[in-house]
């Protein structure tokens, strides 16, 4: 279940000075395995300075097209992002895990209205969602509020303008710039007044089916708060975090050890671990081939199911209350709280 596949980079596209898109060749025998829903991500794996590096990136291409593309924004002091923006070239090979993720759009046969509030590279999964909504729900409308420093920093700026021309009565874009004042754009950042402008002013005639939020944690929190205050149901608000400032905290006593049993790829392994370690770290310390990506509690790669015992997560941005009640945990955040703990990576 944790298998990676070697894929060739077909093309590298320079989107902005700080961002490139990597387009992959997916051979025919892997196309079914690598089929995806709009909004999902893939995990890339490579070795940098003799150390394995894994990073999750959202697919910005739409499903059921010949494109299989992710966009990587260079982070100062970063590892993979620096490699992608400065050294990778067409023909290079990366190890790629099949698509995952719960920040998804699934088209229906009904007319709907959607809105998205995104900033920076948060546009990547939302672009896939927008394309899918416009092509698969032919009467639906989409409002995009997209924040950046300047137009030059805006990933997919030209592509979005082309989509707007192609769907003038169905796609509406509100650009927001924090460094420059531009005609027909907002100045500043996406904040409470921006959300209220969409809901109560310009698009007050639209009843939105879903809201998609992707960008900095502070933006997601503030937009969510305003939406909830305006009576939007929590279930209609979907969000995807790329980074989190919350380090998390466990209230339980983590003194002592736990007898941990891990089931992965139909193999069961039992060993002792310190409760202060996470389940994922303990499994990796034993060289178990368990799935993971971000290790920060913001993706869903490391989910497992508790079949015996209990564990407490330091933080959780992914799982719903009902999923937690079913025994699902993010193993990168989970600390054992019982003398024995059994987790199943296969049954998720």
UniProtKB/TrEMBL annotation:
What domain of life does the UniProt record list for this protein's source?
Bacteria
Q: The FAD-binding FR-type domain covers which part of the protein?
A: 2-106
- 2Fe-2S ferredoxin-type domain ranges (all copies): 258-348
> Known Pfam families for this protein?
FAD_binding_6 (PF00970), Fer2 (PF00111), NAD_binding_1 (PF00175)
Keywords assigned by UniProt, alphabetized: 2Fe-2S, FAD, Flavoprotein, Iron, Iron-sulfur, Metal-binding, Oxidoreductase
Q: What CDD domains has UniProt attached to this entry?
A: fer2, PA_degradation_oxidoreductase_like
What name is this protein filed under?
A: Ferredoxin--NADP reductase
Native organism is Gillisia hiemivivida
